[in-house]
Design brief:
flat, alpha+beta, 85 residues, 4-stranded mixed β-sheet, 4 strands, 2 helices, 26% helix
Length: 85
Amino acid sequence: MLPFTRQHRENREASNLHHCRVAYMVEIKTPAGVLSDAQRAVATAVLAAGGHFGVARDADEALACLDAWGIPRVRRLAPRASVAA
């Protein structure tokens, strides 16, 4: 099992993951959400330290970050089918 933490901050969420001594961060945003100056500063610091940083707007994007970074998952989830409105 990989260490995984979730931080709740004023209705915002971020997930931090450490795998093989490397930091991986996914900032969870609403479809219209943007990174704050503080979040951009954290992203810059994580990247400068050799970590990885991503922004996800839904579960599929968060899982895509894990896949792009080569993070193993115990169970692979199929992407959800689009729901026509």
